[in-house]
Amino acid sequence: MRSEMVALSLLLASFVGVNSKQFVSTHADGVQLRGSSRLSPAWDYSSHGNNWYQVNAQCNGVQQSPINVSEAWASPGSTTLFYRFPIIDKPVAMTTDGRVLRALIDLPETNNAAENAAGTISLGNYYPAQITHTYKLRRIEVHTPSEHTFNQGQRVPLELQLVHEGGDGADGEGGHIAIVSIGFHAGTPEQTSRFLDALRQGGLPNITGTQTLVNRQSPAELDFQELFGAKVGTPSGSLASFNQYWGSLTTPPCSVNMNWFVRSASIPASREAIIDFQDALMAVSSLAQGHAGNDREFQQVLGRNVTVLAAKDANSKDAPLGVNATFEMNAGAAQDAQQAANTALGGLLSGGGPELTAQEELQYHGYMAPAGSSGQSAATSVANGVTQGSEKTVCLQNLAMAYEELAASQTRKKTECDAADVAEQAYLAAKAAGNDPASLQAAAARDSQKALCTAETDTLAALTAQSASEKAQCDALKAK
To answer: Is 352 helix (H, G, I), strand (E, B) or coil?
Structure first.
């Protein structure tokens, strides 16, 4: 199936004449996006961007990027950077305009406005209930050497910039830009980056205005966990840290008010992968450059601060339980909830009618469709002869649901608070070692994890009160 998609994409590309097209367009405020053949004004990296004010005066203004992150005053943030990305196993178009390599993440949007098929990043204290901003991934840009610094002030051979578009709230509307910066260094012979390997698998374009298809053949895939997850070998429960600051595009028109998230530590990759990207950019670079690379020089910090945020996978514990959860997990939770409710009511659940099996419980709560229901409601299937209008039946069903939610909340609270304990120990260890940068990052991760623990504790308290209320109602009905 995947090979057929590649063949179809190549056929369409040849039909429209890709060699004569530019694969970028211009956003309303000058931000380059996809879909237009309009050429942007001439500029190159011959002076590392020092002469770009001739293209756009804004390039000589304030709040410009990139910066040496280590020169900015850093403080721990009070929010978390949540990331939610699917694994992309479809071909991706890689384009070049002679200055920047761009991977166009052109996957169809989902029906849920808060999600994008290519993935999102979100800011908030708890996902998805307490989210202030959401940004949807649009493209990935490649720069070599890196434009930002990593590992406490080091420039590394390669930087990926994940350009997102979004805005206020969980729906990600508003047209604002957020850019995630990931650095790569040459690792040991055993260390490779599957993400970078997939991003070059199929060949990189080496002629201006052309495109290739990368990530073309299995087992290649773009797994964003590599970019946002904790460093390999760190203790369980560790979170990667990102430095957030406000800056600009690093290419003309140098538009400002860009929300940057620069990963603190770079990621190892093979030398071969790094060289492939360097060669592709060298092949299309201006003859006037006189040097390799497409990096803009550091811009003045000018009093800007960096906020250190912990990154957390929104696909894990914080995501709401839904129809895609595994049956085994839901069945176990349902059985525990049913038994707890039955015990609390002195066996009324099994005595007042046929006992609900775990599968029926799941069907009733919408976790899976009733077997052979053919449109029949789950409630009808679960009733199995019990009068639907009975207050006792409805009360028992509500109580079972309340206990199920309570059991899930207890598990989440334990997980988050255990992780908070681990984060606290990591902070104390870094502080004791006298490593100020590491202790600052550890403090941000600790504070973020403590906030998640507090949120889960509050949720558990609310669900406990709800369960007690439901039980009191059922007790009253039992006494009649």
So the answer is: coil
